[in-house]
Amino acid sequence: MSTASNKVLALFGPTACGKTELVSRLFIDDGRPLSVPAVLVSADAVQVYRGLDIGSAKPDAALRGRFPHELIDILDPSEPFSVGDFTRLADEACERAVARGALPVLSGGTAYYIRAFIMGAPPAPPSDPVTRASVAADLACRGAAALWEELSRVDPASASRIAPADAYRICRALEVHRASGRPLSSFVPSREPRARWDVLCVGLERPREELYARIGRRVDAMMAAGLEDELHSLLAAGYGPGDPGMRAIGYAEFLSAAPGESRESVIERIKMNTRRYAKRQCTFMRSLPGVRWLRMHDDDPAGDAAAAAALVGDWLSR
Q1: Which DSSP string corresponds to 187-227?
Q2: Bridge pairing between strands 38-42 and 103-108
Q3: 189, 222, 261, 309: which has the highest count of C-beta atoms within 10 A?
């Protein structure tokens, strides 16, 4: 089986839906149904950060040794990473995969990364260091709530979609307005896919109760694997709540815990926030045209892999 030089498989699914297991069955395991060599290009906004391993469900060294991965462990938790950065680096990673005769497999749960790769990054101006520093100084002096009020005046459409406590997105929206004189909401994403890549976008879904049970088991496994110790190591290295990587689910809940809040309560908030995030992930991806959805089932992983292989194999043969 051969691949065309511009083909990219985008494999999307909400947290804990089984993306890694499916990729392994398709491209790594003995008896795999797809013989084409492949390279995984991570579309995960947390796995880009070094040290955030357990909380991001980062693939382990053994898997990464057997199957090439790109865009993992490329930044420190303090470094910002925009959707434009992702699109540029993903393009480069896919070009490298194609040059070695491999199929790029763009896989992850950060839905707006997948959309930006397919449709092109939103046309908002790039981050400006001077303006960003000015907004950060205002945040330190005035607080997130005051900046959200300012955003409500200059860009009510964006403010309506951003929580008053979401300092990162508030600051980015204000940075865009101050740098360009235009509200972030006025920069409309493209409605047409980029011509650069022929993308097959496969979306994975599960029955809600099954997915939520998997999320609960995953969070429990993360705790057993030492998520709290990982967080303490990051704090000891000098990272804190203001750093982009530390805002991820699983870390943020411990950092924002109320005085005296129990460990059990924090864990339940992680599970709740993960369930909510999974719901938003699917809603977001359903706005994209052309997604081929596959229903996954805990009781038939081999059947799931066979269905996915048939879909991908047909696309590769065209």
Answers
A1: SPPPSS--SS-EEEEEEEE--HHHHHHHHHHHHHHHHHHTH
A2: parallel
A3: 222
Which pTM was predicted? 0.84
Token digits for 189? 């994403």
* Domain 129-186, second-level architecture: Orthogonal Bundle (1.10)
| CATH 3.40.50.10540, domain 7-122+191-316, yes or no | no
Q: What pLDDT digit, counting tens, does each position of 160-218 carry?
A: 878 787 887 899 899 999 999 999 888 877 778 899 999 999 999 999 999 999 999 99
* Spatial strand order in the sheet of 198-205: 69-70, 38-42, 103-108, 7-12, 198-205, 292-295
Q: What is the CA radius of gyration of the chain?
A: 20
What is the residue type of 153? R
State the number of CA atoms in the 13 A half-sphere of 249 facing the CB. Answer: 22
Structural domain spans, the chain: 7-122+191-316, 129-186
